[in-house]
């Protein structure tokens, strides 16, 4: 197990280096600079800013200095929020940045994962029933309708018309402020989990060893929980890892709709203001999370199916 984990970590290092190199040169080789705005700076002020952020150096030299900062645990200084550390913006001491997005993601996964698995198992056990068709239709509907549509509709209905929940903001992270963003993300991800679970359990129930168990007269609940649930979860787990990482760095639209002070706001500001260091930090952070969760998924695979280890 330890050897496998170390091997995966060693393989991920050149992957991360390739991502960092590619994104760094793509970002820095685009025309213009972060200080090209509607209000032109004086040549002296522009030169001072370019020197402060090392943008007056050759790109290869900027790249090596950036790698040196990364090795020492620093993402650099923001070019949007002048003088502020990227580390401090991403991981503030008080609530905000990553901590808001992390809470949003954890709450979503706590609701979506068990709900999706239970719904998917029930739909698979009752294949072609009305419930099963609703599950399939829901997956198609919520895959086609993004959160940028469901979010404003929820605000219109529950905040403006019925005035049950606040239209936006994080408050103290209390239930009233968290409910709608979590509900919208849950609606977006639960149908996918349910659909994958449904397909997986249908395949498992049609396998030979399940037929043998049925032929021996084992009750359905014993077949399900003793023989079917473990192989059913394998494809579901492969979806959950990238899904959680995707929510952590990709809930940009949801955070914008509900004006949450998470990574979504920072990502949007970084893209629109060409904040090179923030773009690099969010890219590295997102890639790291994806790699970490993929390793966790592989470990879970090994625990559920020891044959994979071989």
UniProtKB/TrEMBL annotation:
**Cell division recorded as keyword:** no
User: Which UniProt keyword terms apply here?
Assistant: Cell membrane, Membrane, Transmembrane, Transmembrane helix, Transport
List all membrane-crossing ranges: 9-29, 104-125, 137-165, 177-196, 232-258, 278-304
**Per the database record, which ranges form the ABC transmembrane type-1 domain?**
98-297
Q: Can you name a GO cellular component term?
A: plasma membrane
Source domain of life is Bacteria
* One GO BP annotation of this record: transmembrane transport
In terms of CDD domains, this protein maps to: TM_PBP2
Q: Which Pfam families match?
A: BPD_transp_1, BPD_transp_1_N
Q: Where in the cell is it found?
A: Cell membrane
Q: How does it sit in the membrane?
A: Multi-pass membrane protein
Q: Which PROSITE patterns match?
A: ABC_TM1
Indicate what this protein is called per its UniProt record. Oligopeptide transporter permease
Q: Which gene encodes it?
A: oppB
């Amino acid at each position: 197990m330890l050897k496998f984990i170390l091997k995966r970590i060693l393989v991920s290092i050149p992957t991360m280096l390739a991502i960092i190199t590619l994104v760094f040169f793509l970002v820095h080789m685009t025309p213009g600079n972060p200080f090209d705005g509607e209000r032109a700076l004086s040549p002296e002020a522009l030169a001072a800013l370019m020197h402060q952020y090392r943008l007056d150096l050759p790109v290869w030299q900027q790249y090596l200095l950036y790698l040196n900062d990364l090795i020492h645990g620093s993402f650099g200084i923001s070019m949007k929020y002048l003088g502020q550390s990227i580390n401090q913006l991403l991981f503030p001491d008080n609530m905000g940045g990553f901590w808001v997005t992390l809470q949003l993601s954890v709450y979503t996964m706590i609701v979506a994962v068990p709900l999706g698995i239970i719904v998917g198992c029930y739909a698979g056990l009752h294949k072609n029933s009305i419930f099963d068709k609703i599950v399939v239709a829901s997956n198609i509907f919520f895959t086609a309708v993004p959160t940028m549509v469901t979010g404003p509709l929820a605000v219109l209905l529950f905040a403006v018309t019925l005035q049950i929940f606040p239209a936006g903001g994080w408050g103290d992270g209390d239930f009233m402020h968290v409910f709608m963003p979590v509900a919208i993300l849950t609606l977006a991800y639960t149908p996918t989990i349910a659909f994958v679970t449904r397909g997986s359990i249908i395949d498992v129930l049609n396998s030979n060893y399940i037929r043998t168990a049925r032929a021996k007269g084992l009750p359905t609940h014993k077949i399900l929980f003793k023989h079917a649930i473990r192989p059913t979860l394998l494809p579901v787990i492969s979806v959950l890892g990238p899904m959680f990482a995707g929510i952590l760095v990709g809930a940009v639209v949801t955070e914008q709709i509900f004006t949450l002070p998470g990574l979504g706001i920072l990502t949007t500001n970084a893209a629109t203001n060409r904040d090179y260091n923030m773009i690099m930090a969010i890219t590295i952070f997102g890639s790291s999370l994806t790699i970490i969760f993929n390793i966790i998924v592989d470990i879970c695979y090994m625990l559920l199916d020891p044959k994979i280890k071989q």
